Amino acid sequence: MPERQGTAATAKGLGRTAASQTLTSLPRVEASVDGFSRPLERPAISFVHVSKVYPAQPNKPALNDVTLDIHEGEFVFLVGQSGSGKSTFIRLLNRELVATSGQIFIGGTNLVTMRNWGIPKLRRNVGCVFQDFKLLPNKTTFENVSFALEVIGKHSAVIKTQVPEVLRLVGLYEKMDKMPDQLSGGEQQRVSIARAIVNRPPYLICDEPTGNLDPQTSLGIMRLLERINRTRTTVIVATHDREMVDNMRRRVIELENGRLVRDQDRGVYGFDV
Ligand SMILES: Nc1ncnc2c1ncn2[C@@H]1O[C@H](COP(=O)(O)OP(=O)(O)OP(=O)(O)O)[C@@H](O)[C@H]1O
Ligand SMILES: [Mg+2]
What we know:
- The protein has 273 residues and is an alpha/beta fold.
- It has one domain: Rossmann fold (3-Layer(aba) Sandwich).
- It is 29% helix and 23% strand.
- The strands form 3 sheets. It has a 6-stranded mixed sheet, with helices on both faces.
- Strand 6 and strand 7 form a beta hairpin.
């Protein structure tokens, strides 16, 4: 199991979660006035010896004994060859999948023991962005985003203020009446990001958000994700986008055949395809 590499200060023995207690990833600390160190916060997300085996491939775990912590407000890239387990990792976080063994905690909730009735609440807290946008083709930009609030019962007054606000944030205020087929790929992805964050979830998970976009457009999407992260949203991005990872110098987690093989602060993409 790789230790997290990097410059973040760490201190042994301060772990409060199961993952921390395995000492694979220790909490960040800051010096307090009396000279003692204290944990900044408990991890927002913990994977504790997590494995996922698909029935169709019983002898080849898609994730294999992964243990790591992600702290509130972090921006994390998830990299690895095709088939290394990135999407599996992402889909475990929104409970599209359930781990075969191990524990996953997010905001204090154990996703492995959580009952299905907890899923809607979880998904209100975990915004999701995918490679293929998943917009409703017969709805406008505004409606695609407002729909996400309607289905969770938000009042129209809230919708009328929050939707334009989020569309301004993603730079689509002027295009709120356009249909998806009147928008470029980058604009459609920005609609899907607006939809994912309009309810202001503390977590945003993205699976290849720039996979269908040209480099210039991808840069705009990454800058947007960075801006969202600056509002304390914890952002996890599975990606093949080498340029992006190398430019942004954020924490990089690398999977290989389902195993965690690298965990690096301010990392680079770092392997050949
Ligand atoms: N529904 C499924 N049934 C069986 N095996 C699956 C299923 N989904 C994924 N796998 C397998 O699990 C492993 C990890 O797949 P996953 O989709 O998580 O990889 P990935 O890193 O996201 O790949 P890519 O970069 O191509 O998107 C692969 O061996 C894949 O074939
Ligand atoms: Mg994938």
